[in-house]
Design a protein that fits this description.
heterodimer; A: about 500 residues; alpha+beta; 7-stranded antiparallel sheet; 5-stranded antiparallel sheet; 9 helices; B: about 300 residues; mainly alpha; two-stranded antiparallel sheet; 8 helices; about 0% strand; binds protoporphyrin IX containing FE
Chain lengths: ~500, ~300
């Protein structure tokens, strides 16, 4: 091989080495940290798809071109975007590249002895000198040992150092950050998260088909869903009569851990989830399901049961869709539900209180094609009425029936529903451990001072004491003053 | 006593605290004004960190002590106000922005008084009393809500831990910011020439620089803890410990910004103006989180009626 073909290779390795050194330099770490902070800002000001898909949709309806561009730049999913990932991955590579060598250095340093006593102590900080008795060295050693200094003795001098915990704590802190990130990744890869709306009186079986929405980590497998069953027995919401604000939610359930296991009664609260191993079940939201019976012209029942409605405000006025695909023609009821109905001059029917004190079902009746067979996913709370005609409008109290040309609908009653959020996060314990370690490390690093103290005596009885504090840490002046006072006091 | 009489008592106490802080403000203003008019000392030298007082401070010294006494009294009254607010609602008094604000003002004065024990910070009394009066004034007039129980998601002992850590951190961050701002102000004054007479009384730039760093280094672990306690609470209530909700995002931004500040100082060696600006930036992310996200935000942390 000629030299010419070697050159580029050499260039590449030195380029890589240069790049690595740049990446793991302090200045780059600082820039990446600042970038990470700045890059998070759009994620908090622009609605994000994972948190708020409806708001994102609004952007697309209002200004499609702008929204498309924002979408291309991942501005609707900042924290999952390539550029955000790039920043934190670079930061963590930099972190590892910086912390690992430091860890080895530190391990070596913590076995090493304090450095030589400098020749000219008067050039160090907090220099003291006086005529002593000649046993100062021994007493200083005693004093320093009592204060847990690491000591190295020389002919006529002592070099002492303390505060290695600062570096230890700092390393633990940075390593703990890596552990937190590992925990987050494990959760994202091996976890699952799903939601299901369950009417009071109904049961939830933990299989993929019973979920309203379900997402898995890339490495999660179906069969790892634990086979529990939850019967939703009762749900109680308490509200403050003065402000209508919720005060307490209590969900009573009967659970069966796996087929054949005994039934156990349990209580779920907002801050107290149910646990099945590493899977937790959270009470997330609640609303009302009006119970209706719909009959066709012949009087045969075509739909019967509770239909979950979606709450729109703090007083739980809700919207919903009653879809009857099995009648001919198909029927649809574009509805709203008011738990405690009242009339407002401007807004029409409103709910005054979140409890079902005077429930009312309001709807318009439509007939025609519900469009369910077209294969386009539809909201369960809305009806696409483009291929339907309106044939009636009515408001019912419990027990009332409305008869129209193509059938009838009866408002039988109402039950509450609860939204269960089912989450498995096998990584959270790593993150928690990382968090605890990070704080302990920080405390060790920020509240320890690394410092050195030297003392030298010469044949003529001259005593010299001086010190040096890393990064100008405070307090060494006092410490040395105490040592000097101690040596002088006992001496005279 | 009934719940509503505790609530009334709390309001009276907060009003009285405002009255006392106003007196503290006047005493500090008097102190500062006299320092301005005090004759130029022949010689002002720095002894280590602190200025040796060669100006005639007899009168202002007394005013200053009275001002500090008022600050302490105001702190105690406000403390009683916050506690009785809690009793009236039957819970910790951190359920809405009014309560966050009065507790925040309490933490801010507390941080100042605590630091005052160790450092000669009385010159900060004037801006701090103005600041506290502004916070309390806004709280009473704009943010006031009748005392009421918590919504279910807030009923958790992690709330107590999380919010108290966050409020204390906030108080200290605010103090560090005030000092960084004072640094920048005095620095620009020195760039133009000499400090004016009253400003000579204040510590050297170096002391201010160190002090704001030390305050940040002191509370950074607490803030880290506050963010983590919040994550644990979120895990209990919402089934995920981190969800990039706007409030969480800004807590994270504040954390990263202060970590950057510490790095800049410890590893890259920033001092002075650059460090002070970074400190101000980090502190403003905290304030932004508190003001903007609480009021205009859309996340899970925005509870109806503030
Ligand atoms: C996730 C990002 C990081 C965070 C949140 C973080 C946070 C911190 C904190 C809070 C300190 C304590 C400062 C003090 O002692 O006052 C610190 C110190 C330090 N960090 Fe980081 N850091 C991060 C990444 C990095 C990276 C990437 C490097 C290396 C390139 C690094 C190297 C150091 C060093 C050398 C110190 C100073 C230790 C000392 O002398 O006390 N850090 N960091």
């Amino acid at each position: 091989m000629s030299n010419q073909s070697d050159l580029p290779e050499l260039g590449l390795t030195s380029l890589l080495r240069f790049g690595w050194r740049q990446l793991t330099s302090m200045r780059t770490a600082l820039i990446l940290l600042l970038l990470l902070g700045v890059a998070s800002i759009p994620g908090s000001l622009i609605p994000q798809r994972p948190q708020n898909p409806m708001k994102v949709q609004d952007y697309f309806t209002k200004d499609p071109t702008l929204a498309a561009w924002m979408n291309r730049l991942s501005l609707f999913d900042v924290f999952g975007s390539p550029w955000f990932s790039a920043i934190y991955i670079l930061l963590f590579i930099s972190l590892i590249g910086c912390v690992l060598p430091r860890t080895f250095d530190h391990l070596k340093a913590s076995r090493a002895l304090p450095p030589l006593t400098p020749a000219n102590l008067d050039r160090m900080e907090f220099f003291h000198t006086w005529q002593g008795e000649s046993d100062e060295l021994a007493r200083a050693k005693n004093w320093l040992e009592r204060k847990h200094f690491r000591i190295r003795e020389f002919e006529g001098s002592i070099s002492a150092e303390k505060g290695y915990l600062r570096e230890t704590g700092n390393l633990f802190f940075h390593l703990a950050l890596i552990l937190i990130l590992v925990g987050v990744s494990v959760g994202a890869l091996f976890g699952m998260r799903g939601e299901a709306i369950v009417n009071v009186g109904d049961r939830f079986t933990n299989t993929p088909t019973t979920y309203d929405s379900l997402s898995y980590g890339k490495l999660f497998r179906d069969q790892s869903l634990p086979p529990f069953v939850i019967n939703v027995d009762n749900f109680q919401a308490k509200y403050d009569p003065a402000t209508n604000a919720p005060q307490d939610y209590t969900l009573q359930v009967t659970v069966i851990d796996k087929p054949g296991a005994p039934k156990v009664k349990k209580i779920v609260k907002v801050n107290a989830p149910l646990s099945f191993g590493s899977t937790n079940v959270y009470l997330q939201a609640n609303g009302y399901s009006p119970i209706v019976t719909v009959r066709d012209k012949s009087g045969a029942v075509v739909l019967s049961g509770p239909i979950p409605f979606l709450p729109q405000d703090a007083n739980l006025s809700s919207i919903g869709a009653i879809k009857v695909p099995d009648s001919t023609p198909q029927l649809g009821f574009v509805s709203s539900f008011l738990p405690t109905a009242a009339r407002d001059k401007n807004r029409g029917g409103i709910s005054m209180y979140p409890e079902a004190l005077d429930p009312r079902l309001l709807f318009s009746v439509w007939k025609g094609d519900l469009g369910l067979d077209r294969g386009i996913p539809q909201s369960v709370y809305r009806i696409d009425t483009t291929k339907m005609t309106k044939i009636g409008l009515k408001s019912l109290s419990i027990g009332q029936t409305f008869v129209f040309a193509d059938g009838s609908i009866r408002f039988d009653g109402v039950v509450p529903w609860v939204n269960l959020q089912i989450v498995r996060d096998p990584g959270k314990m790593y993150s928690l451990a990382g968090g605890i370690l990070a704080i302990l490390g920080l405390l060790g690093s920020l509240f320890t001072r690394r410092r050195r103290i030297w003392i030298r005596t010469s044949g003529d009885g001259k005593v010299e004491v001086a010190g040096l504090a890393r990064s100008g840490a405070p307090g060494l002046e006092n410490e040395i003053a105490l040592l000097v006072a101690d040596l002088k006091k006992d001496g005279k | 006593m009934t719940h509503s009489s505790w609530a009334y008592l709390s309001n009276y106490l907060v009003y009285s605290a405002m009255g006392v802080y106003t007196l503290a403000f006047f005493a500090h203003a008097y102190e500062t004004a006299w320092a301005v008019r005090a004759p130029q000392g022949e010689q002002v030298h720095t002894d280590g960190n602190l200025l040796v007082k060669t100006l005639d401070y007899k009168r202002t010294e007394k005013a200053g002590r009275i001002a500090t006494a008022f600050m302490i009294l105001g702190f105690l009254l406000l403390l009683a106000g916050v506690v009785s607010r809690g009793i009236s609602a039957g819970r910790v008094p951190w359920g809405n922005m009014y309560e966050f604000s009065i507790t925040g003002a309490l933490a801010f004065t507390g941080a100042y008084l605590f630091a005052l024990k160790k450092y000669d910070l009385r010159w900060l009394g004037l801006p701090i009393s103005i600041f506290v009066l502004l916070i309390l004034g806004t709280a009473i007039t704009v943010l006031y809500r009748p005392s009421a129980p918590l919504v279910p998601a807030l009923k958790s002992y992690w709330l107590v831990i999380h919010v108290s850590a966050a409020i204390i951190s906030g108080g200290v961050f605010l103090l560090a910011n005030t000092i960084a701002a004072a640094y920048l102000y005095l620095d620009s004054m020195e760039q133009r020439g000499e400090r004016t007479a009253w400003a000579k009384r204040l510590p050297s730039l170096e002391v201010l620089d160190q002090l704001s760093y030390r305050l940040v280094a002191f509370v950074f672990p607490l803030w880290t803890f506050a963010v983590m306690a919040g994550a644990i609470w979120a895990e209990h209530a919402w089934g995920r410990y981190w969800g990039w909700d706007p409030k969480e995002t800004w807590a994270f931004i504040t954390w990263v910004a202060y970590a950057a500040y510490l790095h800049a100082r410890v590893t890259v060696g920033w001092r002075g103006r650059k460090a002070a600006w970074l400190c101000l930036f980090a502190g403003s992310t905290f304030l932004f989180n508190y003001v903007y996200i609480n009021i205009w935000g859309t996340g899970k942390h925005t509870y109806s009626g503030l």
